[in-house]
Write a structure and sequence with these properties.
The protein has 683 residues and is mostly helical. The chain folds into 4 domains: 87 residues, no CATH class; 152 residues, Nucleotidyltransferase, domain 5 (2-Layer Sandwich); 164 residues, no CATH class; 164 residues, no CATH class. It has 28 helices and 5 strands. Strands 3-2-1-4-5 form a 5-stranded mixed beta sheet, with helices on both faces. A hairpin with a 6-residue loop joins strand 2 and strand 3. Helix 4 packs across helix 24. The longest helix is centred in the first third of the chain and has 25 residues. The radius of gyration is 31 Å and the shape is globular. One of its GO terms (biological process) is regulation of transcription by RNA polymerase II. One of its GO terms (cellular component) is nucleus. InterPro entries: RNaseH-like_sf, Vacuolar_transposase_reg.
């Protein structure tokens, strides 16, 4: 092998690894002293001091680890033949020859794929409460790829496969064929599914209806994160917001494209302690426009300092200046006021997206975040220079989105959460009632082929549960754990079986987006001709390797604009805030992290933004979904949280006996007379 100009490893075993085995002492003057003898915690194998030929098993193990590294890091297989990598491997082990890319792709890659698929099939055999999600993606070769995977709440998803439908119509019927083929790939029965989750364009809505008609026991719902993201886009569709977003894009485009002025901006940023850069916009994420607005707002002082310089506005010795329209935008106070208003109005929804983008989030968590965001919008103070039309548009948009997303299934999940039942059923004007829980539960029982006897007991269970009667008293933040406990017998109380199904649903399709993100990392300018089967293989392997490296731990996403919670289950602080502090006030007119994945060169134009807004019209909720209320109905009339001030963090409904005796033996109970009290009241 060529050593690429590096000195060949010595054949003398005494010299092998000398820099580690015999570290050199330096005195204060920096001179070499006597070599130290390495201290070992125990016996050391002789292989640590001398090289030897590797056994076939050791060679194959090393080759497989190299394959896993290349796949997970998204590095082309031809890198295994790079002279420097070969030289590095020979320094470590002179007898180890790296496998060629042919050996990696033809021998080890199929074996790894077979191993992972076999493990997935075995794992799937014991799973029966799976959520299926599917979505489409256009790769760098403009191929229309549809990915399908299965997930359980709180665990790693299982990739079923990719299907190329380029040149075909993506109809609901074709998508049904795609997911059925994906299920067959790993021997999964539709009986193992509890829910189907997709985003919400017209085709996907039709596909969900078609799927449920064929498999009536499978629940179907929209992706909650996509719905929140869509509402961010709708808020941003106001003319004032669109103009602000276009100006932000113009500022980011200029400074990320000019090496000189970007460098000058970086110098000012370092002096001011600004750590984040100007963010790019991701076409599929409306909330990334808000993150971009946040990054621009953080750079206001630095941008202004740069744009008022003489050489920024007037050319000196023929050098380039900052574009005049960029200078005007940076020095325009109105733009910064509108940008700050845009951030304030969209931040509740953006924070909700960040809080829910994890594997632990349940349907009840989604509803709690939605209610909290609606509360923040309803009580948001209007600042002196705000555009009132924009504020009213945003509040109306959130109310409309709230009513669309407040479906029977999502409300029922909140009702079944032991800490959320009093939030779900109240005396509010438009609150759903216990009778709605009866109706929803019976519809589910019928679709799951429950007996009439079980249905009758289910109604009795719901009534007991609503009242907090044993064994349904109390509650904890993690609803699934509470329902899984031994105190409630599932045979005697069928509501337990229903609740466990509901709390097994993964309410969003973030995992399919992660799959496409991984595949996007695999494709590159130098590696863009991968076949669809190869991309499917790499996607399956990367999904498995991610789980191996995290030890199966649930990944909680972190964003630069906020911090997600470390614990799973209902957010007790948020629940307490909702049930104690929601009072509708009239708005008063007086009133540091690492770079995230959104940083990079910005190429979006105002035309791109207009085109994206036009696509919002294709994203709607199903007819008849939600609670059926108009956007002029205030949220607090649907969830009367002001009546639930007694709900404390971690405190469930008290048993009836305890409530009945709550006022017994109160201080001063023997110091008053009924007749005297009536007279004092004028009766």
């Amino acid at each position: 092998m060529q050593n690429a100009g590096l000195e060949a490893p010595s054949d003398n075993p005494d010299s092998a690894g000398s820099s580690q085995d015999n570290p050199i002492d330096l005195d204060e003057a920096g001179n070499e002293g006597v070599p130290k003898k390495r201290r070992l915690g125990g016996q050391s194998a002789i292989a640590g001091y001398m090289d030897r030929a590797m056994s076939q098993k050791e060679k194959e193990t090393a080759d497989i680890y190299l394959l896993r590294f290349l796949v997970h890091a998204g590095i082309a297989f031809r890198a295994s033949e790079h002279p420097y990598l070969e030289a590095w491997a020979h320094v470590l082990r002179s007898t180890y020859n790296l496998p060629s890319r042919y050996v990696l792709t033809e021998k080890y890659l199929p074996g790894e794929e077979a191993r992972v698929i076999s493990e997935d099939i075995q794992r799937l055999k014991g799973m029966s409460l799976l959520t299926m999600m599917t979505d489409g993606w256009e790769d760098d070769l403009r191929r229309a790829l549809y990915g399908t995977l299965l997930a359980e709440l709180g665990s790693r998803p299982i990739v079923l496969g990719l299907e190329d439908i380029s040149g075909q119509r993506a109809t609901a019927e074709r998508l049904l064929e795609v997911v059925e083929l994906a299920l067959k790939k790993k021997g999964v029965s539709a009986k193992q599914l509890v829910c189907l989750v997709t985003d919400n364009p017209t085709t996907m809505r039709a596909f969900r209806r078609l799927f449920q008609a064929k498999y009536p026991w499978v629940l179907t719902t929209y992706c909650f994160l996509h719905a929140l993201n869509t509402n961010v886009g709708r808020i941003s569709s106001h003319p004032a917001a669109k103009e602000t977003l276009s100006v932000n894009a113009k500022i980011v485009l200029f400074f990320n494209s000019s090496h000189y002025w970007k460098g000058q901006l970086d110098l000012i940023k370092r002096r001011l302690g600004i750590k984040r850069g100007l963010k790019t916009h991701t076409a599929t994420r409306w909330y990334s426009l808000i993150l971009q607005a946040v990054s621009v707002q953080e750079h206001r002082t630095a941008l202004r300092e740069l744009c008022v310089r003489d050489d920024a506005q007037q050319s000196t010795n023929g050098y380039s200046v900052i574009k005049a329209d960029v200078v005007r935008a940076v020095l325009d106070a109105t733009h910064w006021q509108r940008n700050a208003q845009l951030i304030r109005l969209c931040k509740p929804l953006v924070d909700a997206i960040g809080n829910l983008e994890n594997r632990d989030a349940s349907l009840a968590d989604c509803m709690l975040e939605l209610i909290a965001a609606a509360q923040k919008m309803a009580t948001m103070a209007i600042e002196p220079m705000d555009d009132l039309g924009f504020t009213h548009h945003a509040q109306r948009t959130v109310r409309r989105g709230f009513h669309e997303m407040n479906t029977d299934l999502h409300w029922f999940a909140l009702f079944l959460h032991p800490l959320g039942r009093r939030l779900a059923v109240s005396s509010a004007t438009n609150s759903r009632k216990v009778t709605d829980a009866f109706r929803i539960a019976l519809d589910l029982a019928k679709s799951w082929n429950w007996s009439e006897e079980s249905a009758k007991q289910l109604i009795a269970d719901i009534q007991q549960y609503t009242n907090g009667e044993a064994p349904f008293s109390g509650g904890i933040a993690d609803a699934k754990s509470w329902w899984s406990g031994p105190l409630i017998n599932s045979k005697a109380h069928p509501i337990k079986a229903m609740a466990l199904r509901i709390f097994s649903i993964v309410p969003h399709s973030a995992e399919i987006e992660r799959l496409f993100s991984n595949l996007g990392g695999v494709q590159s300018v130098k590696r863009c001709r991968l076949s669809v089967p190869h991309m499917e293989t790499l996607g399956i392997l990367r999904n498995q390797y991610n789980d191996d490296l995290t030890g199966g731990a649930t990944v909680r996403r972190q964003h630069a604009h906020m911090h997600t919670r470390d614990s799973k289950g209902l957010d007790l602080d948020k629940l307490t805030s909702l049930t104690t502090n929601w009072t509708l006030n009239t708005p008063s007119a007086s009133e540091n992290t690492d770079e995230d994945a959104l940083q990079g060169p910005e190429g979006i134009t105002s035309e791109d933004i207009d085109r994206a807004f036009a696509e919002l019209d294709q994203i709607r909720m199903e007819d008849g979904s939600g609670d059926g209320l108009s956007d002029d109905v205030a949220v607090e009339t649907v969830y009367a949280v002001s009546e639930l001030a007694k709900v404390q963090a971690g405190e469930g409904i008290k048993p009836i006996e305890e409530v009945a005796a709550e006022h017994d033996g109160a201080p001063g109970s023997s110091q008053w007379d009924p007749k005297s009290l009536l007279r004092s009241l004028g009766m």
